[in-house]
Description:
single chain; alpha+beta; 3 helices; elongated
Amino acid sequence: MILGWKRFTINSSKTTNSWPILYLGIRNSFSSFILASSLPILSYRYLTYRNRETIYLSANIEHIAQSKFTSVWKKTLNDDDNDDGKNVYYQFILQCRINPKFEYFSNDKLECVIPSEHATLENICNNILCFGLMIRVTDVEPIPIERI
């Protein structure tokens, strides 16, 4: 278990246990496609998108948890919770497996970067499989890397 993160399993019909584990921050539009690539109930022909974005994955969950890769959601607890306006911060990250033969994967780099022109639905479905949802809840605002 990674400190501070809780993992929820996403059952997949695909078996890729030999593929390396990387993390994807939930910030860009491709998060839903990568998640959908693991769910056999969805048909890819219904998944359409207009804007391609560069996809960043990393084997280091703390690196991908930076605000440039992952959104932070803030919730102020109300008086019904007896917390008198206490702030709570949430982050969500997808735990994925990546095909080690995928041209953009390298064990020697902190980040796996898939350029926007190659971030196609076909590349995602053939090379990235989501198998877990990581959630972190904290009462301390995560510090963006730019402010450290």
